[in-house]
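We give the chain.
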Amino acid sequence: MSSVKEEISKAQGLISHGVYVISTVYQGRANALTAAWVARASFVPPLVTVSVGKPRFSHDMIRDAGIFAINILGPEDMAIGKHFGLKTGRKTDKFEGVRYETKATGAPVLIECAAWLDCKVVSSHDAGDHTLFIGEVLEAGVRRQGAKPLIYERENFFK
């Protein structure tokens, strides 16, 4: 794989993103990863996209299970973002000691998040080193009225 020109990488780094925990369950095992590349895709039906790196443990679980939840984090949830983003689920149970519930799909929905979307995969698309999963939102909720999203800034996240 060729490297990306430094100017392209720097410019793309200025595209703003929120911070989300994307969770799934497959064959009885729950896992999640922290992601920033999430977007609304359609009003009707309500569709969202998540971009997941192909090497990530959750990637194949989402593909095979056909479900995921988007847990939307607020500024006070930085520790949650780090918890799910700085280690792999291949070697650890990321949900050990973490409170969650399940909704329509069975994907974990964090109790400690600003809002959530429970989704079934309706399509997926190859996107270089990532896969775009398009999910139809089956259920959603806001846990903190007036919540602001946690905005991803690499220099703050990896402190």
Notes: The chain has a mean pLDDT of 93. The CA atoms of residues 37 and 51 lie 5 Å apart. The helical segments are 6-12, 57-65, 78-85, 154-157.
